[in-house]
Amino acid sequence: MSGGRIFAFNSENKELGPNMAIDEYMFENIDCPNCALKVERALNKCNDIIDAKVNFVNKKIIITHRNNVEVYETVCKEVKKIESEAVVLKNKTEKTKKSKVSLILFIVSVALFIAASLYWIIGKDENFYMYIIFGVIYFLIGYKVLYESFKNIIHGQIFDENFLMLIASVGAFINREPIEAIMVILLYRIGEKIQSRAIDKSTKSIQGLMELKVDKATLESGEVVELKDVHVGDIIVVKVGEKVPLDGVVIDGNTTLDTKCLTGESLPSEINIGDEVLSGCINLTKVIKVRVTAVESDSTISKVVKLIDEASNKKSKTEKFITKFARIYTPIVLVAAVVTGLVMKFALNISNAETINTVLVFLTVSCPCALVISVPLGFFSGIGRASSEGILVKGGNYLEALANVNTVVFDKTGTLTKGVFEVQKVEEVGASKRDIIKYSAYAENYSNHPIAVSIKKAYNEKIDEKLISDIKEISGKGISVKIENKQVLVGNEKLMQESNIEYTKCNEIGTVVYVAIENKYAGYILISDEIKEDSFKAIKELKDNKKQTIMLTGDKKEVGEDVAKKLGIDKVYTELLPDGKVKKVEELIKQKNGTLAFVGDGINDAPVLALSDIGIAMGGLGSDAAIEAADIVIMTDEPSKINKAIKISKKAMRIVKQNIVFAISIKALVLVLSAVGIATMWEAVFADVGVSVIAVLNAIRILKK
């Protein structure tokens, strides 16, 4: 995503004013998460910037600013104040040239340090010249830390990890421990690099998904054009090995597609003429021609990339707490360092060297990097792992909430069932079977509902729209329409009752459509839907994990209870209108003890998806409205992936909690040991750099399958 304007929505999904815009930039060479937080705070103080978000894991800066104001130079300036070597890029394609001089200098400096240390230890020669040599090595290894420290002091940023490292290392020199002084800086820099590498590794699965979005397509004529120049109805050619650039329908050829990027399924899919293909999938075997059905902005891969790209901006409660905690943690430890040093000096009458050592340990341990990076990285890795399984989680807040789900509420049609209806029976009473089907098909002519589609499919003749007039849709009941100047009612029992039509109730299992012609009961059509095989697995796994399962449906009681019984669902509520589903979910939310998730796929499910603690949409076949309203999207329409998503979220939360407890415990232990004169700078360096690296490595375990 570039530094150019994007649609005007802020991080809370609220529409921005007409005089506001959003720019996005990438950054490089900010290796410390605490520095990223400082950059964010500095940018938010700038006059022309309304809101700034710095995503350390995604290496992205998102700026909401006043329209017609260029903020790029301002962003660069503020970033440079915090991190002199940082580079702000306007788009992902920009590359910075990395000099090898600093790396060579670093390696040479480390070699000199090892040689000097061996001479110091083995020769036990503590002469003046050795201190000069160690001083030169200290400068060569830690020049970046020294420069950043003094620069930040000038800008009034004293509570900075570079400054803390400077004080700790200089104090070690004063304490006549040059090896420890250099080791503090050396391990800090090595830890930064290891941490950066680990973070880069964790983002590969996300970046790989981002790269599935291609920029160009080949038209049938052979011309290669930008995706923005391709329109609905155009025919494009997808060669072997290429990614499908846009959603469409195959009109020529057959092939095998790798859909793993979208669905998480390792088995390729066989595609033939007439089949739908989704953008982002890879063509494996043969050339195909595709008629485009969605422009670039509406394509599947564009929506997926957008969802994932925005996911890490929606922080969980844990992340927000850690961010606030980090701001007060360092000052608290610094005050504790001074107080402890004074107490030990005057109350316990210890030496100056021991007092300085204790204060230095406190200073070294006070850096909050382990917490600031490992917690958001844990959520980010969880989102990445879920995406590799075809589960799109829109933010860390939803991943955290998902771990606490104890009630899962399902829509029926299209979610637990295939949503593919077929006419099973036509019962004639006051009209012939042909007329019942004909008038029903005409009445449902303008509807795309699965039931309407099945009726039109059963009629299988051309519909003359000139014969249709006075259409009135009666919400939750059916349709009133004139066909060939005859008044026709098509709908459920409620429509018959409301219209005072005497009818014979059908007690067979399935969806029943009653038909009345000229206010006389004509008969009914019995339509049935098939339960997804995966639904049995989904309900069983949820119940095995002690989750309550509930089903809501607008279908009649007999049909709903039959499906619920076959699947083993705990509770079922039937014959619900769209507003009835909303009211029922509101009731369930009031009754629940934990988190409630609603799973749906249709446009009428959008209000319930938005209302629930967690809204889960079936993305492969689900409506755009449902996907937009949902917090989590299942790309394969497999309900069983809900349990997989819960498992991933639980693992992510488990690792996040492990990192918090581990980091705080180790730091607290070292502080206590230092206060009683046991811990040295070596333990302090481990409590800072070592804990950070271990926490990062632990966080990326989530990515392992």
Account of the protein in words:
Helices cover 48% and strands 19% of the residues. The chain has 22 helices and 26 strands. Strands 14-26-25-24-15-22-23 form a seven-stranded mixed beta sheet, sandwiched between helices. The two termini are 29 Å apart.
Brief summary:
Helix content is 48%, strand content 19%. The chain contains 22 helices and 26 strands.
Query: Which class do the helix and strand fractions yield?
Result: alpha+beta
Query: What is the terminal separation in angstroms?
Result: 29 Å
Main sheet specs: 7 strands, mixed
Please tell me the overall pLDDT: 81
Q: How would you write the strand order of the largest sheet?
A: 14-26-25-24-15-22-23
| DSSP summary: helix tally | 22
Strand content: 15-25%
Share of residues in helices: 40-55%
Q: What shape does the CA trace take?
A: elongated
How many beta-strand runs? 26
Indicate the radius of gyration in whole angstroms.
Answer: 32 Å
Query: Which runs of at least 5 residues are low in confidence (pLDDT < 50)?
Result: 1-15
Q: Which structural traits does this protein have?
A:
single chain; seven-stranded mixed β-sheet; 22 helices; 705 residues; alpha+beta; 48% helix
List the helices and strands and how they pair.
Blueprint: E1 20-28, H1 33-43, E2 49-55, E3 60-66, H2 72-82, E4 87-89, H3 101-123, H4 128-154, H5 161-174, H6 178-210, E5 216-219, E6 224-226, E7 235-238, E8 248-252, E9 255-258, H7 260-263, E10 269-271, E11 276-277, E12 282-283, E13 288-292, H8 300-311, H9 317-346, H10 352-365, H11 369-388, E14 391-393, H12 396-402, E15 405-411, E16 422-428, H13 433-443, H14 450-459, E17 468-474, E18 478-483, E19 486-491, H15 493-498, E20 511-517, E21 520-528, H16 533-544, E22 548-552, H17 557-567, E23 571-573, H18 578-591, E24 595-600, H19 606-611, E25 614-618, H20 624-629, E26 632-634, H21 641-675, H22 681-699
Parallel strand pairs: 15-22, 15-24, 22-23, 24-25, 25-26
Antiparallel strand pairs: 1-3, 1-4, 2-3, 5-6, 5-7, 7-13, 8-11, 8-13, 9-10, 9-12, 14-26, 16-21, 17-18, 18-19, 19-20, 20-21
Helix pairs in contact: 1-2, 3-4, 4-5, 4-6, 5-6, 5-10, 6-11, 6-22, 9-10, 9-11, 10-21, 10-22, 11-21, 11-22, 12-21, 13-14, 21-22
